[in-house]
Amino acid sequence: LSLCSKKEAAVIEKELLKEYRFGQQQLIEIWGHACALAISKAFPLSAFSKKQPTVLVICGPEQNGSVGLVCARHLRIFEYEPTIFYPKRTQITMYQDFTTQCEKMDIPFLSYLPTEVQLINDAYNIVIDAILGTESDHGEEQEPFTSILSTLKQVKIPIASVDVPSGWDVDKANADGITPEVLISLNAPKKCAKGFSGKHFLAGRFLPYDIQKKFDLNLPEFPGTDSLVEL
Length: 231
What we know:
231 residues, 15% strand, YJEFN_prot_NAXE-like, YJEN3 protein, YjeF_N_dom, YjeF_N_dom_sf
């Protein structure tokens, strides 16, 4: 299995959009759905200790945040109870569409994230970190995300990160970021996953063979018709 750099991840995505004529909305939908499937595998409803199957989904302003929105919508369909915290919304129509879809599914949005960590531990079973993906520059996190990350470093409930754990350098193993229990890699695992010791899924089984060959991805076998595989 090859691990892909930040640069390679961007080039692969560009090829999917330009050469293969995938739509950005289409990709985000595929990834978000696959993330929800990975969450349901890692945290089945029956395994939650709390009475309500509550999940907190924290979404950043860029593409990774949109994947989080789609993931939340599918989790709602899978009978989880997601709540979304989406502090920095953008004017991009597509991202607004994903937000509307969640609102129409009666998924609640938080107006602020409690800094009292115990409140988060008590209210939710898990946190899904869809904050900073490969598109964010490491070390350039700004508010409100620096505060959110310092809160997430203290939570006791499990964190599942989408593609790249927020605050990690895409190309290097983690130094002092958050510690997710689950990592859901999209397309191909990134270099930062090298030292990751939690449950690791590869989600979204749609990459054309020519792209896999061209970038020497050596993706693992997916079981049967599953769209995700545990690495």
